[in-house]
Amino acid sequence: MASDCEPALNQAESRNPTLERYLGALREAKNDSEQFAALLLVTKAVKAGDIDAKTRRRIFDAVGFTFPNRLLTTKEAPDGCPDHVLRALGVALLACFCSDPELAAHPQVLNKIPILSTFLTARGDPDDAARRSMVDDTYQCLTAVAGTPRGPRHLIAGGTVSALCQAYLGHGYGFDQALALLVGLLAAAETQCWKEAEPDLLAVLRGLSEDFQKAEDASKFELCQLLPLFLPPTTVPSECLRDLQAGLARILGSKLSSWQRNPALKLAARLAHACGSDWIPAGNSGSKFLALLVNLACVEVRLALEETGTEVKEDVVTACYALMELGIQECTRCEQSLLKEPQKVQLVSIMKEAIGAVIHYLQQVGPEKQKEPFVFASVRILGAWLAEETSSLRKEVCQLLPFLVRYAKTLYEEAEEANDLSQQVATLAISPTTPGPTWPGDALRLLLPGWCHLTVEDGPREILIKEGAPSLLCKYFLQQWELTSPGHDTSVLPDSVEIGLQTCCHIFLNLVVTAPGLIKRDACFTSLMHTLMASLPSLVQQQGRLLLAANVATLGLLMARLLSTSPALQGTPASRGFFAAAILFLSQSHVARATPGSEQAVLALSPDYEGVWADLQELWFLGMQAFTGCVPLLPWLAPAALRSRWPQELLQLLGSVSPNSVKPEMVAAYQGVLVELARANRLCREAMRLQAGEETASHYRMAALEQCLAEP
């Protein structure tokens, strides 16, 4: 064994005999003075030439951590020796050790992080060579630690982020190294960095934003690449937004090459992702800037996707998708839009051409590419467009529908991969870190709004049905519903889950109206009906979920009318519970409200319904109509309604308010329900008569109800 090691040792000695001599002196040192002198010589030799990993390890074996620890913490330096010289020597040794990744992760290095961080902001002569050397060695140590698997977390916990921010803002020696290390830490652990040092990071952002706004040289393009990393996960300060917008306006308003323009587009996309359009000022300058942004994005998308055989810069194109999505939002905003009507018309035309390029690209996507994040991003922007516009590019969209259904099905069946794709898209397009809530983890949710529009039209609906979209939507609805069921913490669910469920209900409502035969013959709708019946009783009791309850109740009532012969609807406990909950939803919408100076109350919305009635009223009227249609089909329903006292309470409500306060459409809806209940059941008729039903019918000119109650 000795003979194997001896040649290597001799080789090391022949390569650096001076270092070997100093190491020998270090090993033979008898006191601190001799050890200190030997360490100075070793440090000098190390800096004078390159050393390999084996030699570095031999230095560590000779020195260890004990003496460097003492050098870093000592408060008493020898006479004539500045105290920072001892610390500089300790840091130089640590820097030497940290060149070995194993030693960089050593606990004895990690516990020095707080001490090393203080050196970054220590005051002293900026021209002192020893102090500069210590700063360089400190950055070398911290950078080496950051490169280890758990290093960023240790640095953040040790206060390094704040120290780096202060070092950068102080613009002292090595401030550029501070910025580089900050960039690495933010890329590795953005959330933790902001949690530990938000005020300091915001100060850096302010400084960078101001520099960006003032820059007249090539540094502004470099800042474009840095700034996205420093945008906080929460609110961006308004003064930063002003500076960033002003800087981007100057850059994008100039004639640029692609390497200059692309970072600016990516920064603008990151701001759009974080702030929507809030970072763009109102007025003429803001509208021109937004129009320019969207125009440039559309041009970039077309150039990238229409030319076959060219390599697509996916990160740039995906950033352009985000800017197009911002354009779609502003073009469809009715109030307080940044854009004027002529600008909207022009941008819609430009975006239509870009969406055509996206469709062309997706038509070329084979099965082997379906799991690529850029495809996901392309489907996302198409979904955003279809959510607002389905009349244009109708032929192209119809041709693409089979692919979209297959794509959504593939990602639905591999949900974990879909979620990972959304994170990759966010990384590709917007940010180097985790995605925000606007990047949902499944493709189907992106397509739901567009499919809701398309199921109204005969041609697209037939394609969707042929490709199996209804069955896929039923499975998706049931899976998403599980997330809201008892046992799951609904408070942590994103709003997109509930919105997705509501949109699914709208699609099913379209199918109930336009394709009733499908509802009757496809078994997936039987399963859906079971879920609706089981879920509504608890849903109507939950605060803040009235709109979803309205969708579920109305859909269930319409489906019950089509599936009335199903055994599940023949007075089973589940069906009785569902209809009792539906009656609760329909009956609690209006109340009698006293008005000052009037003897009679007026019919008014109940408090829970007031805030959502604009979105709810169509569902409520449709639900009343559907319930009316169910009464003659389900013989047990009228007695159940009588036991709930809904017809009696409805007549009582109408009798207690001024007929002039009840709109004609409300009178028609109430009469429809009362007439069908009266026709279906003698006891219902008797109960209505006892509640002054004939007199109320006369007051409201409900001729059909009056005639029905006059019968025996």
From TrEMBL:
GO cellular component: dendrite
InterPro entries: ARM-type_fold (IPR016024), Neurochondrin (IPR008709)
GO BP, one annotated term: neuron projection development
Domain of life: Eukaryota
Pfam families: Neurochondrin (PF05536)
Endpoints of the signal sequence: none
Family the entry assigns: Belongs to the neurochondrin family.
UniProt protein name: Neurochondrin
Species for this entry: Bison bison bison (North American plains bison)
Taxonomic lineage: Eukaryota, Metazoa, Chordata, Craniata, Vertebrata
